[in-house]
Amino acid sequence: MVYEYFANFNGLLKAYIAGKDSWVAYFQSLELPEHPATEELKNCFIKMLQDQFRYFHQDTEMQKLVHWQVSEYNPLMRATCENREREGTRLLDMVDGHFRNSGISLKAVLALLVGGIYFNVLHDSAGVGTMAGIDIRNQKDFDQMLKTIGQVIEWAFQAAELANSKN
Predict the structure, then answer these.
(1) According to a count of CB atoms within 10 Å of the terminal CB, is the N or C end of the chain lower?
(2) Hey, is 105 helix, strand or coil?
(3) Helices (H) and strands (E) in the chain, counts
(4) Closest C-alpha to 126, from 64, 50, 51, 49
(5) Domain count of the chain?
(6) Longest dimension (CA), the chain
C-alpha cells in the first residue's frame, strides 16, 4: 500500500512531514494586506511565535521531528527547513525597511526566539526539570513565556524605531 500511494518509504515520510510541519501551512493562512503596516507585521510576528510555542508544546510528534531535524542531516528535513525559510523570508522582507540602518536584527531576534521555543519545549518533554526557574507545565509559567515572546518582539520594533529616529 505504501508503494501504491507514495512510491517508496521516502515518499511516505515526505507526506508525513509535510502534514505535521505547521510553519508552511501557518504562513499560507496568514491574512495580511498586500502592503501591511509595521504594526500589523509586528503583531503578525508576535502571534506567529506565540502560536508556534503553543503548537510545539502540545504536539509530541512535531517535537520528535524537530529533534531529528537538529540532531542529524536528512534531505527531507533539509527541504522542509528550506521551505520554511522561503516563506519566512517573504515576511521578513516586508518589515525590512523598519529595521534597515537601525542596528537591530529582527532575524537574529526571531532565530533566538524560535530556538528558545524549541529548546524549552524539548527540555520540558524530556522531563529534566525547569529552565531558569520556569516550568512550562505550570500554566502561570507557560503564560509568562507567551507574554515574554511578545515583549521581546515589541522591544525589537521599539529599539529599531528609536534608532531610526536618531538617524
Answers:
(1) N
(2) coil
(3) 8, 0
(4) 64
(5) 1
(6) 64
